[in-house]
Design goal:
The structure is a homodimer. By secondary structure, chain A is of the alpha/beta class. The first copy, chain A, contains 13 helices and 15 strands. In chain A, the strands form five sheets. In chain A, strands 2-10-9-8-7 form a five-stranded mixed β-sheet. In chain A, a hairpin with a 3-residue loop joins strand 5 and strand 6. In chain A, helix 11 packs parallel to helix 13. The radius of gyration of chain A is 21 Å and the shape is globular. Chain A starts with 11 loop residues before the first helix and ends with a helix. Chains A and B meet through helix 1, helix 3, helix 5, helix 6 and helix 9 of A and helix 1, helix 3, helix 5, helix 6 and helix 10 of B.
């Protein structure tokens, strides 16, 4: 076979994809999914918590009663109404006209970046960023400004202020106010307020990724950033962690003047039509007690978080540092700078234990001495076993 | 409210979307969907033909027996296997490694364009092109070369040859070999062969949009272009017309070295994970008689096509010209150059009848005297009534 001239490298996204092919992340992830591996690597929800049977009932209701259930059609207004209601739990007031339904949160992030960023433009990130968002950014080859994150107080607001005062005008700041991935941080209310003040003063759009916002474990949380500002915060929500990933049901909350633009952009990328998943989810949310479902999730994940924290306390050497996450799926563990967690990852895998090293999260790829542990997916027993192995591994590295 | 600096116009896709906002197509489409309108405008499948009850059975099977049915997971290998089998009907031999599952054909088109085209690059189109593909192209602001299409013989291969001989090297040619949208043409075998010879000689990638390829009404069809060449043809398939649009189930067939690149690109745009729809469709295709289902569709659509052709023969003035389409959803009607079908569309709407004028399909927007009629969605009775109104309208325009 001749090699087509069309071989990757022709389109600009393709040449970027060729770079990613050489990145180790895909390979890492594949390795952690081997059946024997005790994996605390990925951010998967616990599948025992999916409301599979009840969801099937609503698929049946929709398919049996709506003759247009499988036809092309506009996004579900019923689902938007349910989301408006749900958003009150995040301290966000909005209307149906501001909700834009997406094929999961990832498409929401992608649409917002295409809306706000020019190729080669400038963006403002934290030092550690969800790799899926870095993937969205990569084809734009943006100039990246990054600011430190304190393990307790979160994003360094003074550093953000200094950058904006210096005259830099990034296209947006990307952040997570609740259940930060990978750091597990929930921003204190005061930090949120300061961030919003800066956004308003310097007219800085903020992309708020709130995939974990409804999964908080220690009582009420401060409002989402979107709850503090309607003009500058572009909110990204998702049912992937609170219902199930395979539905691909996410949403944006944006000023209503963006609806049409987003719709045209979505139409070009995959046609802006209601899916059966969205229709069934709308039916479910209209009838079932989603608040009770969320409480079940919180109870289960709180308990797993506590197991992970207990296991870390028992098995990790005293030089390891971590915080107590109030929401989300992750605990971030900092080790001494001499320890390279990418190397440690290989050693852990050899002993059938997996975490994610800090390098893929690090915007500079230079921060190599931390690691991310997931507690949502593994069983309690697996968490104990995995952390025991990790502890032993760290001990053997000292010796 | 202050106007955010982030107002559309910041990102390059956004500024393109702002142009589209002013395009009349969205408005046209909204008007044709009013309940009283006898619409032959859109390319919707007949929803009475959706296998809704059987599909529900397979959703139930998957949800009751696969505990990972709603979890993140790799694309369904079972669905790829079913597609490999199905492709034999289009004269295409391929393997699972060459199938890439997409969120409908539209995402397949979008991914291919991102793979093959640089912003500002050059593309080769026919004079009339599916507007959804023009939407995919628009943000790239490509230089467009276009070639005429003969109502019977299809794409003007000599014109393609002349362009390539002149030294132009477009990133790809986009075409539909079977059930052309909007022209209704099925390419003669000889034309397909000539096109492939040119693609191979000049190393020209071809994007073959085959959304209607399995819906042919007059006996066996020639193989798809992909059946004649494996190196240069990038094939786009879809279950939207043969099963149901709301599943968003499409696929690409590409040389296997592109799999990883497409996966990285899809991961960035909406996460490359199996959806419940794909899993249930795989279950359906593994057990049910899809060939018999396709025969039911062909019988129903053949009969509606014949109704439309009969109605045209009875009600349209003798100056109107159309062909007998062997596949797809559409009949293309040519009227005298003096007639502007965009104006005619407004008049038709006033009488509660709708078609689509030629302008949105015309690459130059200059071809304004033809119109597209859909026969898949309306009832036989609606087709008769609508064409009677169209005939009367044309008569009154003459008077």
């Amino acid at each position: 076979m001749k090699t087509p001239r069309a071989t990757p490298g022709t389109g600009h996204l393709a040449s970027w994809a060729r770079q990613l092919e050489r990145s180790p992340l895909q390979k890492l992830l594949a390795q952690t999914m081997q059946p024997d591996v005790l994996s605390l690597a990925l951010g998967l929800p616990d599948l025992d918590l999916f409301p599979q049977a009840v969801y099937l009932e609503h698929l049946a209701l929709v398919l049996q009663h709506d003759p247009r259930a499988l036809q092309y059609g506009p996004a579900s207004e019923q689902l938007k109404t349910a989301i408006v209601k749900l958003m009150r739990e995040r301290g966000v007031r909005c209307s149906e006209e501001q909700i834009f339904l997406t094929n999961g949160a990832q498409q929401g992030l992608s649409l917002l970046v295409h809306l706000l960023l020019e190729p080669g433009g400038m963006v403002l990130l934290e030092d550690f960023v969800y790799p899926g968002f870095q993937q969205v950014l990569a084809p734009f080859q943006p100039a990246i400004l990054s600011v430190p994150v304190d393990r307790q107080r979160g994003i360094d607001v003074d550093a953000v202020a200094a950058i904006l005062q210096s005259g830099a005008r990034p296209a947006f700041l990307y952040t997570m106010s609740e259940g930060h991935n990978p750091l597990g941080i929930s921003l204190p209310f005061e930090t949120r307020r300061q961030l919003i003040t800066l956004a308003q003063r310097y007219e800085l759009p903020i992309i708020e990724d709130d995939a974990y916002g409804l999964l908080s474990y220690d009582g009420p949380t401060p409002p989402a950033l979107r709850g503090l500002d309607e003009d500058w915060v572009f909110y990204v929500g998702s049912f992937s962690k609170t219902f199930a990933p395979a539905l691909r049901a996410g949403w944006l909350i944006v000023p209503r003047q963006f609806q049409l633009h987003l719709s045209v952009m979505k139409e070009a990328s995959d046609i802006d039509t209601a899916t059966l998943s969205q229709r069934a989810l709308a039916s479910y949310l209209g009838v079932e007690d989603f608040a009770a479902h969320l409480e079940r999730l919180r109870t289960a994940y709180r308990s797993k978080r506590d197991t992970l924290l207990a296991a870390l306390g028992q098995h990790l050497p005293s030089y390891a540092r971590w915080e107590h996450p109030h929401s989300g799926f992750f605990v971030w563990v900092e080790l001494p700078p001499a320890l390279d967690t990418t190397r440690l990852f290989e050693q852990a895998l050899a002993q059938n234990m997996a975490f994610l090293p800090s390098a893929p999260f690090s915007v500079t790829r230079q921060a190599r001495s931390s690691l991310r542990l997931n507690f949502s997916h593994p069983t309690h027993e697996s968490i104990w076993q995995a952390i025991r192995r990790l502890g032993a591994l760290l001990e053997s590295n000292e010796a």
